[in-house]
Amino acid sequence: EVQLVESGGGLVKPGGSLRLSCTASGFTFSSYSMNWVRQAPGRGLEWVSSISGSGRYTYYGNSVKGRFTISRDNARNSLFLQLNGLRAEDTALYYCARNDGDFVFEDFDYWGQGALVTVSS
Amino acid sequence: SYDLTQPLSVSVALGQTARITCGGNDIGNKNVHWYQQEPGQAPVLVIYRDTNRPSGIPERFSASNSGNTAILTISRALAGDEADYYCQVWDSGTAGWVFGGGTKLTVL
Asked: What parts of chain B have a pLDDT lower than 50?
């Protein structure tokens, strides 16, 4: 059974940093591209970042480019998102989602339950 | 940047057919994916690559994509279909994913 479990969320002050993790199980992790998607309270889905199965290719949404960094450790079946320079508008539930294959432009067939990031002084 | 436009809300009578639109420039030439998100839950894929249903998704869910509009159709609507629905495409121009703003489906 495919499982994605996010961790690392919490309360952080503006300008601060946080590192989110997503631990995957039930599939060959390195064979799939992965993504982060966020959802601010009461708002819609916003794509944050994607990474290819090897980790060689990464993509970012305009609102996080230069502040967030996506990475993965295939030996540990883990996906990461380093969040720097956090702003109040980054407050959201951050979902980890799997692409349906090793291409980043495939649909998201499995999602985790999310990790809450709150940016507030 | 590429934009996807969805109605904020759609209402449908119990047992009737609901149609949720997703508008985008020449969207018919892109692969559209649809997600259902029930309150407090993670999104679930209900349609991928325009018209395909993942295993476990009822046949009542179908979709089409042509021209500037993609449409998710939910036949014989049930109370359990009440949720937010999002369309999604990969924008090769910006090398990024785009989500529609989401549509809240209400079953009356």
From this structure: none
